[in-house]
Amino acid sequence: MITITINNKEIKLEKAVTVLEAARSAGIKIPTLCYHEQLEKYGGCRLCLVEVEKMPRLQTACTLMVTDGMIVRTETEAIADVRRGILEFLLINHPLDCPYCDKAGECELQDLVEKYGPTTGRFKEKKRKVTENLQDPVIVRNMERCVMCTRCTRMCEGVQGASAIGVVSRGGHSHVEPFSGNRYDCEYCGNCVSVCPVGAIMSRLHRHSYRPWQVKENIETVCPYCGVGCTVVAQVRDDVIKRLVPKIGSPVNNGMLCSRGRFGYEFVGHGDRLTTPLIRKNGVFEVATWEEAIGLVAQRLGEIKDKNGSGAVAGIASPRCTNEDNYVFQKFMRVTLGTNNIDSTARMGYAGAQSFIENIFGQGATGNIISGLSNSDAVLVVGGDPTTVNPILGLQIRACSRRGGSILTVGHLPGFQHFSPLELNPGLNHETQLFEHILEHIVGELVSRKVLPGSNPLLEAKIKTVQADVAEMMKEPAISEKDFAGFIEKLAGAATPAVVIGKELIQSSGGGYKLFLICAITYLINGRIYLLSDHANEQGVLDMGCAPDLLPGYRPLSYAEFRKRYETAWKTTLSDKPGLNIFEMIDAAGNGALKALYVMGENPVFNLPDAKTVEAALRKLEFLVVQDIFMTETAQQADVVLPALSWGEKYGTFTNMERRIQRVRKTVDREGMEDWRIIAEVSKHMSQRMQYADAGAVFEEITRVSPLHRDLTYDEIAEGHTIYPYKGEPLRGATAEIKIEKGSSYPDGPLLLGVARPLFHSGTLSRKSPALLKIYPEAVVRINPATAAPLSIADGDIVRVTSSAGSLELPAVIDKHVEKQVVLIPNIFEGKGALSLIAIALDPVLKAPVLDSTPVTLERVGKVSA
Amino acid sequence: MTILSQTALQEIDEIRQNYPTARAALLPALYVAQREFGWLSPEAYAAVSDLLGVPPAIARGVGTFYAMYKNKPMGRHVVQLCTNVSCMILGAEKLVDFLKNKYGLEPGGTTVDNRFSLVIMECIGACGTAPAMLVNDDFYENLTEKYIEEILGKYQ
Amino acid sequence: MANVLLKNIENPNSADISEYKKVGGYTSLQKVLGKDPKSIIDEVKKAGLRGRGGAGFPVAMKWTFASADPKFPKYLLCNADEGEPGTFKDRPILEKNPHVLIEGMVISGYALGSEYGFIYLRGEYPAAKDILNKAIKQAYADNLLGDNILNKGVKFHLAVHQGAGAYICGEETALIESLEGDKGQPRIKPPFPVNVGVFAKPTVVNNVETLSNLPYIIEIGGEAYAKIGSADCPGPKIYCVSGHIEHPGVYELPMGTTLKDIIYTHCGGIKGGKKLKAVIPGGISTPVLPPDKIDCPMDFVNMPKHGSMLGSGAVIVMDESVCLVKVCHRALKFFEHESCGKCTPCREGTGWLRSILGRIEKGEGASGDIDLLLSIAANMVGKTFCPLGDGAASVVQNFIKHFRPEFEEHISAKACPNR
Ligand SMILES: Cc1cc2nc3c(=O)[nH]c(=O)nc-3n(C[C@H](O)[C@H](O)[C@H](O)COP(=O)(O)O)c2cc1C
Ligand code: SF4
Ligand code: FES
To answer: What ipTM describes this predicted complex?
Structure first.
């Protein structure tokens, strides 16, 4: 116990903290500027100078650690003079443009000057003049206002790890700049904006349209973008989200956001939003009333069910919708329509991988705490770059490296290039052999010490069957013995290893087998698994039972005892026949077995491989209902389009990849209905009443029905600290047979298409977010310079990319980070999606589509205009 | 893809061995790049950054902090004249005027023929033989106008 | 007293290892290897050696801290940044007698348990870089550096790290940052470099001149060494004298030689027999002295009692022709240029002071400007992150303290009276 005295007040402390922290804990205010709780100590601004007995000089409270018996004074006359003096220095070069500055009202300098500052200025010389920099589409820099606290650069380098901005020059000439001096060319996390205490770095999105004191409400909600589920605070004025900011202390992202989260909210009020129901009449959409539209949907679904049986109807749920939406939707399918034909795009990999992993390790095996990654001593990353797919999780891996842990990657991941990763890059063709080889080596290490874990005999038996073809692995691009040995040493020697698995592995050729190898490696090193997830509620959509074989709370449909519980709760009898998965639905539609499809918040034409086939299949349906917020490619094919409220306009919950259940809160008012309410209305028209007053009532039912959510309430999850199973019981099923099938292999020789996963986009939401579009405006094809050169393709040239499924013409970006063998196209922009070029082929084990082995040819069709 | 010469790459690689971290080789590597390009152009920073795994914005921050790195193109020869107190009181300022009048060489500037750039230095440790200057890497002391003319004649 | 640190420098080949060995070079190292390293630290303690970099910190004390820290490896850094204007005392060692430094560093490294040394050499000394590198090569060739020095199982590696023009890198934590490939901005202390220094390992930073004393201390023993010069800070000291002086240059004299003696006895007095106006005794950051205050022993203990500091021992002599406002202005221009920008008072204050001084010098000063200067300086002193900012402010304070009338004259005459 340490006892110190500040301003005659005795303060007892458990552990040594800074004088500033001690003072704050006792409610004593010490002014600060360069200090920021998320950043490393700096001690530069000198505002926090205090008197400490027995120390000759004044001391900065933000850096000085307390020692027992320390006596501190923070409010003497002398200290007041010091503060005035420092503020006077800061104002020398600071323009007095508060009336014009967007920061006014939440400017730390303004507040400090008001409280401690000089009343008149003695500075008569010329102030520094720097024009505002508007070169960047989303961030504006006004270096005239900068006070050189370096909070932004310390954030950018030390926390975000992007190191995109730096202090250039020195002394009085120092200023903050991105490398280019103009545009940022960075990760656009905007975390520099968060920490800037003055109006020097600000978001352009709300420029001159926003004043802190005009904010009516600060509404805490969950980011709509990825499976990390960051807490965001929406600041709203006149029913418009003015900005989204993070919150320090929130459990997942603790004050950090990524570009999508911070700048991607403008889709909410976008002019392209669907506003009224539409009914296709004679081939064209006509505006309809809700009454008409819902009536028609109920009538047609009823007719088809009666005529063709429940099996002729299917539903596609959404990883972008809330748990409440998805729960009601699957209940509607199962109870009202009597079918288990319900699935979602979680089938694109997350679902299959998760159940494969859980089969080996037990339920919840992938539900590890994201922030724990930074404490690992080694993180193995496979299957893509977490810093773009799940950026805030990526930060934790960077932090791990900063704390001395090792980042081990298979493949080249640009997001870690400045974090000294140990990188093995076998090229696509030899990835499997590399994993086998790693496994063999680790087995070797363990066997030599006679310590095979023994806890999973089934798995160990399988491990013994693996044999690596080392010679094959060492082929182009060669992996050196030294690199491999270093990699193994770190991996096998780690005490707290984590394994991060991305979709690129799951969606790769032989993905199921590779996943088995990774699981085996993880087992042997005793690692924790993180399964990356690119949708906000991808976990939740599965949890809610939007799967052909699972009921809410992950209960397998095939067990009668389980079914019974739901039948009781829902007062119905459930079909015991597993439904169609999303790919089977497309097949069934194509061959005429499926007659009606209800799509909620999803865009299968765009988000499933092989757009042409999917489109053709949907065209064969007798009845297609699409419920969405925008007129998507799929909606364009619909018979009825129903406009739903979006994320920002409704209440509900999301469950992130850690299985943290968090509140989504309404930020703005908009006329219309939530997805679940529309469904309930349809159901009511089909004489199956689903009566919920609000989202809370739906959730209440979920907590009664799903054993994983038992007894939760909105109150309990309000702070985001709830990770299921909370009060409910997990299902730790015994391992069933572990399936190993090598799956397809790569075609030898040709260029292969890869799906780019840019940091700035998610698809449907992001392409309606102007700020994100300004950062990343259009689809491009990324090509390695070595691939481009012989084809005479230069940066900006228009290139035709052709596969057996189709072709696209896109501008080229020459990018040395792309593998030589691969060309990358994102699946973001309408009519230009990578998936449209890929034929559907599923992995035999995971039942996820293989997305990385489509041969393509390139042809330059247009030269960049000089 | 780096644009540094093979010799430069090798030199940086050797320097790298002196230190326990790649980052520590940044200052010497920037010197090498500066020698190659004549100044630290964006390409030079990018090349060094690639080689050492240091983010370019950080490399540039470092490269602009130190006075001896040149962040704009320089003339063929860099005249670095000290004007700190010992040199100043022994006439360095007159020499600045002389350079301006005789060669059209302004502090911070470059002659039109691109032959010389002039950099005003803080103390260069030649106070006992002031005024003094460096031309490129060569020291010249006890300067007079006449002596400067003679010296600069050697640099074409 | 014969030159110790500058021994042999009249010899045009003094930098060559064979010439150095001819005058007894590397015998101290021979003598010391194999002894208990602690005993060397004891010897240094007996010698009473104080750092020559400016602060006069007792060397043995710093070494004891570092050698007591259990972390390995430890680093020995030689501070050859010599940036303090007026200072050119390390340069002759580096260029003319590099082996005395290398020998001193190997001995120090051995005493500390350090196996790695760097010489942080200022970028403005390109010639010294080549000379040092050549000398280091020679020392490696003669097995005086390497993994098994003189076959005594002692390891010490040495390399030169070239700075790039930043005065602040003379400050030891800024030096460490710079060696790590960063901007030279001072670090928060604690932790001190002796515990967490370069590459987060225990680190000793000593000045060139300091380390060059080691061979001599070993040669004659700490007790004998302690008898040279001032009692509280003994040893030979290199004074470097510049400005309006008959014989400018470096002088190795016993510590504590008075400023007056240095100027008039050793350097032949003021150039051209002119009148002395002011002396800066220890480099530009040390307080200026008027002619009546120069009868003071030049050492770390006595100079503060006489209103100034020994600093680097760089004496700048100014005769009656000099405008002191101009000198003060030039000094502040230097500090403004060299402020690292980390802390507010120094970053903003140096520029403000400089601009007011510039105004006064040009004859555009306003009444009240002198008090404004003093008030700004007072807002800086004791509030900056590192001593650079303090130094800048105290330069202004001391010029005004001793020469206020000259400042006032500039303001009232609206011109420089010296022109
Ligand atoms: C602004 C500033 C500049 C300094 N410059 C130098 C320098 O150029 N050379 C030097 O040896 N010490 C310099 N020092 C002192 C060093 O910080 C450090 O005290 C010294 O290198 C320790 O070595 P010593 O104990 O052998 O003197 C400087 C200190 C400050 C605050
Ligand atoms: S006093 Fe402050 S700004 Fe000046 S050099 Fe030291 S840390 Fe940098
Ligand atoms: S808050 Fe302590 S120095 Fe800035």
So the answer is: 0.96
